[in-house]
Write a structure and sequence with these properties.
Helices cover 85% and strands 0% of the residues. The chain is elongated. This is Orphan protein.
Length: 75
């Protein structure tokens, strides 16, 4: 659980560093942090359900990040 929180925090902080250049990327990181927090609050830590929930959050984040990077290239 602590590792997941640390990764989400790093993602959120790295999003803040990029927010001037790409605010969409920052939004992706914030959404990922919220998603993983919701997983932690609604499932038993280190359960299969939590693992699946977090994996889904990461998939959503990766798609969001890809789209945000494409938007950054266009602008």
């Amino acid at each position: 659980m602590k590792a997941i929180f640390a990764l989400a925090l790093v993602a959120a902080l790295s999003g803040c560093q990029n927010s001037v250049e790409n605010p969409e990327l920052n939004q992706c990181a914030q959404q990922n942090f919220q998603c993983e927090t919701n997983c932690s609050n609604s499932t038993v830590e280190e359960s299969m359900t939590n693992t699946v929930c977090v994996a889904q959050c990461q998939e959503i984040y990766n798609r969001c990040k890809e789209q945000a990077e494409k938007l950054g290239e266009i602008q």
